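Sequence design from tokenized structure. All designs in this work follow the same two-part layout: the structure record, then the generated sequence. An example of the structure record is given first.
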């Protein structure tokens, strides 16, 4: 009996010694396997400084691991320490129970060249040439990972195609517990800091039984320069400055991520975007958006307060394009190839719910919008400053209200109020707009280009009331212009339209030097033939048609002459010189002609006695020249004799004609 006990004790002792020996040798063996067989295991050369394994308490400690690139010398990934503590005996019950995992000093360098990554070869190393059917049988193993810590990790991502590098200077992750194959809840926390600016904090809670999750994301000081290289895929920008702060809560179910709900706040500040020549396209002091609920799947966007401050935006027009066209990168694909690609790749449209938009409060303040046209003989630059908009309860359903104010060049002002529908704009709109005190000299480059006349003075005002009800538009526009004066027509500029601007001012001005124009516009906005601006220009054109067809008669009426008073100058058949009354009429005609350099006078003498006609015509021409009418702008000739019962005299007509 004693011998049997002794044998058992010897066997147990030997087994314990073997276990102790294996435990002592496991570390060096593991280190040797990594250092000598790394390429066989993962397809890359690797080096491990230390490996410690204790089979009794399930403790594994690895230090100084370095995995190299395919060249065998350039570092790809590594860590300072990996410490794992596990319950090995629970493997008998098909449970992998890791008490803690601590990974310190992780350093990973990821390179992307087109569609290839520097870790692609590692993935390919583990691929099998044989296609295997996926085993869909549920596993009865439970994997329980507890107290996972990633501390002071560093990572870099270099996109070789864009020459863009992202660096994470300090990343820390804490997962108190994570279970696969069980129904325990999981939570995790991640903190990382971008080397180029920005800090991210993420905390999540996950219900394994229901797949529900809640994630809280905090982004602080994210530098917009980090996305510059990605914008350059489609845009030509020289620089982009600014930062983003965000606090977002996302909740939903992992199996239906598109139905997740987002809420929180996003703030963007200090934005400045410049084009390739360094000119500012847009700048923004601050934009704050309170997100009440965003659900992509339901196409629902609900916001609380949206506040935009200090927006500066410039739109410029050149002969070869504009701000937008210069901003966009030219496509390398021919239009016919783009069309073919779009037809082949565009999926069939999926029916989605109508967009639901709701904004509790919108406030825009301190904004400047500038329009510049460099295609004109002189640059036209028109800044709208101190732009402010206030609106509340904006939604795609129901009626909306908004008010706007702005300052115009030269001390003018703009005010507008709007009430109407967004989703069905043709059903109801009510707009009121008022422009006051606009210095018309600010419009001079534009007016000069279109008419050939520079604007010397004048104050412009506009009052607009626009209503749409069931597609029926009624728009009342009242134009108020005071002391409008234009300079002499510029002969070095070819106007885009032949408009008798000076003559029109004579006709339209009242005795108080005011021009009041009532311009109503009506129509059906659902009619494809309806064009609002076409109606406006037609109305304005009708105001000038009288001036264009008979400028002398129109201007004479504005001067206080009776209709037709300057159409005929009676003379006697044997008359050799002009009378005082005839000089007075000719002086009035000269005044009419001098009101606009486009106006020419045609005087045709009808007399039964032509013996003195040439002499009389000479007197008329010389007097008109003395009054400032050039010979190029007058025609004085003898016509047919008057008919029976018709008087002798000059018939006067006028027309618009460009001077040579």
């Amino acid at each position: 009996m004693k011998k049997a006990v002794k044998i058992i004790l010897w066997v147990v002792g030997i087994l314990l010694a073997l276990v102790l020996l294996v435990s002592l040798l496991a570390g060096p063996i593991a280190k040797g396997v990594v250092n000598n067989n790394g390429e066989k295991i993962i397809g890359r050369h690797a080096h491990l400084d230390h490996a410690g394994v204790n089979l009794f308490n399930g403790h594994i400690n690895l230090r100084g691991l370095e995995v190299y690139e395919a060249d065998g010398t350039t570092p790809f990934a590594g860590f300072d320490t990996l410490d794992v503590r596990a319950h090995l005996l629970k493997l008998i019950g098909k449970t992998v129970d890791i008490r803690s995992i601590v990974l310190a000093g992780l350093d990973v360098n990821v390179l992307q060249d087109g569609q290839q990554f520097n870790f692609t070869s590692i993935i390919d190393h583990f691929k099998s040439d044989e296609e295997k059917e996926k085993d869909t049988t549920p596993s009865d193993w439970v994997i329980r990972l507890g107290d996972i810590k990633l501390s002071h990790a560093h990572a870099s991502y270099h996109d070789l195609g864009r020459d863009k590098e992202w660096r994470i200077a300090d990343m820390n992750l804490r997962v108190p517990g994570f279970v696969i194959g069980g129904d325990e809840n999981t939570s995790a926390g991640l903190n990382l800091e971008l080397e180029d600016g920005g800090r991210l904090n993420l905390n999540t809670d996950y219900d394994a039984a229901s797949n529900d999750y809640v994630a809280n994301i905090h982004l602080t000081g994210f530098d917009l320069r980090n996305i510059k290289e990605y914008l350059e895929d489609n845009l030509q920008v020289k620089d982009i400055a600014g930062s983003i702060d965000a606090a977002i809560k996302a909740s939903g179910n992992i199996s239906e991520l598109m139905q997740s709900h987002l809420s929180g706040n996003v703030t963007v500040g200090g934005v400045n975007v410049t084009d390739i020549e360094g000119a500012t396209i847009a700048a923004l002091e601050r934009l704050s958006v309170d997100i009440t609920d965003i659900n992509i799947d339901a196409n629902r966007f609900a916001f609380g307060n949206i506040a935009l401050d200090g927006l500066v935006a410039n739109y410029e027009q050149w002969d070869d394009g504009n701000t937008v066209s210069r901003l966009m990168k030219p496509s390398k694909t021919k239009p016919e190839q783009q069309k073919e690609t779009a037809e082949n790749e565009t999926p069939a449209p999926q029916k989605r719910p109508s967009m639901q938009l709701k904004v509790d409060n919108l406030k825009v303040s301190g904004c400047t919008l500038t329009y510049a046209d460099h295609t004109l003989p002189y640059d036209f630059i028109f800044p709208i400053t101190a732009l402010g908009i206030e609106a509340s309860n904006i939604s795609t359903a129901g009626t909306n209200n908004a008010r706007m104010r702005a300052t115009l060049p030269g001390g003018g002002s703009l005010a507008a109020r709007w009430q109407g529908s967004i989703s069905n704009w043709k059903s109801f709109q009510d707009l009121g707009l008022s422009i006051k005190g606009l210095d018309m000299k600010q419009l001079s480059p534009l007016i000069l280009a279109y008419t050939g006349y520079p604007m010397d003075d004048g104050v412009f005002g506009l009052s607009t009331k626009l209503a749409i009800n069931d597609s029926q538009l009624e728009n009342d526009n009242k134009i108020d212009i005071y002391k409008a004066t234009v300079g002499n027509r510029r002969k070095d500029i070819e106007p885009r339209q032949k408009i008798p601007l000076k003559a029109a001012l004579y006709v339209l001005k009242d005795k108080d030097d005011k021009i009041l124009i009532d311009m109503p516009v009506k129509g059906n906005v659902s009619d494809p033939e309806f064009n609002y601006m076409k109606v406006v220009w037609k109305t304005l054109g009708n105001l000038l048609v009288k001036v264009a067809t008979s400028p002398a008669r129109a201007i004479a009426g504005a001067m206080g002459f009776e209709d037709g008073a300057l159409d005929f100058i009676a003379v006697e058949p044997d008359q050799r010189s002009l009378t005082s009354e005839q000089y007075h009429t000719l002086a009035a005609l000269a005044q009419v002609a001098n009101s606009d350099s486009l106006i020419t006078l045609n005087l045709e003498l009808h007399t039964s006695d032509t013996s003195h006609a040439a002499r009389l015509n000479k007197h008329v021409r010389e007097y008109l020249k003395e009054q400032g009418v050039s010979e190029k702008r007058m025609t004085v000739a003898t016509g047919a004799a008057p008919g029976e019962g018709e008087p002798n005299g000059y018939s006067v007509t006028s027309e618009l004609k460009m001077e040579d």
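The longest strand covers residues 256-275. We note this feature because it recurs in several other targets discussed in the main text.
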